[in-house]
Recover the amino acids of this structure.
């Protein structure tokens, strides 16, 4: 690699069309037989979007969303549920009086706090869909799942069997905030002919409830596709699994054939997509490939065992359909990828990588200064 190749910060041109086409509802029906059963609720009412964007989290009492749970199971919150319900009823009554006097503000001029009653139809539909999907689901919006908020759950997953679990995860996730507030952060607005003031207008937000699948993280992989060709495959979970090396050829062939035979032809023809990222899951006995998600080809997604510049350099140098690398975590590279999970939420991966190494951070700063000088 030459010095020029090392210091150049490769850009990724992303269009609004590509972002919107990677919304879950856009590709789910096209590849439904290759993914887990899902319920898609759209468009979402504005009141629910405002609820997710609010600074505070207000969950309905447990017995208010599934009466069967109160009848058939012990309820650990029973000591305070009744008091909370009475308080909510009083607040609802006060809100009605205040709204009559001053629109959606209370007597002190404060904005009305959105509660479930403001999107009751959606609330009821979520409960119904949970039951239809077997009682356990995982939630996401158009592009992101609230995996960065899984620490809020007792089992440290995004497995939800109550509607309140869904509200809690969505309300506390930075990934969800990013979906709502910055869906086109990777798009050059001027080049794409967009106005920054109304760029989000065309987004039809959706809530996706996926039937729970107990995934073995060792068998989940991320595939990078550009110009309708695979440019790299990476292990998704950054832990070392010794047995994966012996399965590498089998897994590679399964992913390669699935992407070229099924995914690329469909997304190219139906959605006019030529670059994107596909997360797949291949459970034993390795006779079926499941699509976990399809993401826009942007730096907002983790390159995992690659770097973004490495992936883009592969494309620049040119390659055929079979000439790409399939990376696994092994004993030699394990330390390099020992970083906090989901630390990519707020900063580019180049910065996250550098933050693990003081010398790398200094080098990154130097190269940034050089680039600044070149553009002046």
């Amino acid at each position: 690699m030459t010095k020029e190749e090392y210091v150049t910060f490769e850009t990724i041109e992303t269009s609004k069309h590509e972002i919107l086409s990677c919304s879950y509802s856009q590709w789910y029906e096209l590849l439904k037989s290759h993914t887990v059963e899902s319920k898609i609720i759209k468009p979402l009412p504005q009141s629910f979007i405002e609820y997710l964007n609010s600074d505070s989290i207000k969950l309905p009492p447990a017995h208010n969303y599934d009466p069967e749970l109160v009848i058939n199971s012990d309820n650990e919150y029973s000591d305070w549920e009744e008091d909370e319900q009475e308080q909510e009823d009083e607040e609802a009554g006060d809100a009605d009086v205040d709204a009559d006097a001053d629109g959606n503000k209370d007597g002190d001029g404060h904005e009305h706090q959105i509660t479930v009653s403001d999107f009751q139809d959606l609330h009821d539909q979520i409960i119904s869909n949970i039951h239809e999907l077997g009682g356990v689901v995982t939630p996401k919006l158009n592009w992101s799942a609230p995996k960065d908020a899984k620490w809020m759950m007792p089992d440290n997953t995004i497995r939800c069997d109550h509607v309140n679990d869904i509200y809690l995860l969505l309300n506390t996730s930075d990934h969800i905030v990013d979906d709502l507030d910055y869906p086109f952060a990777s798009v050059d607005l001027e080049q794409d002919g967009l106005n920054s003031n109304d760029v989000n207008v065309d987004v039809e937000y959706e809530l996706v409830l996926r039937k729970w699948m107990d995934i073995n993280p060792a068998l989940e992989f991320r595939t990078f596709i550009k110009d309708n060709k695979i440019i790299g495959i990476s292990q998704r979970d950054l832990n070392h699994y010794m047995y994966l090396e012996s399965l590498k050829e089998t897994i590679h062939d399964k992913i390669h054939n699935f992407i070229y035979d099924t995914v690329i032809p469909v997304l190219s023809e139906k959605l006019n997509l030529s670059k994107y990222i596909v997360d797949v899951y291949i459970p034993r006995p390795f006779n079926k490939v499941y699509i976990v998600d399809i993401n826009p080809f942007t730096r907002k997604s983790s390159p995992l065992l690659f770097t973004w510049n490495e992936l883009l350099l592969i494309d620049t140098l040119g390659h055929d359909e079979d000439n790409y690398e399939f990376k696994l975590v092994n004993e030699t590279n394990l330390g390099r990828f020992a970083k906090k999970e989901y630390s990519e939420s707020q900063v580019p991966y180049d910065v996250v990588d550098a933050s693990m190494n003081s010398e790398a951070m200094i080098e990154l700063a130097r190269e940034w200064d050089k680039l600044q000088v070149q553009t002046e």
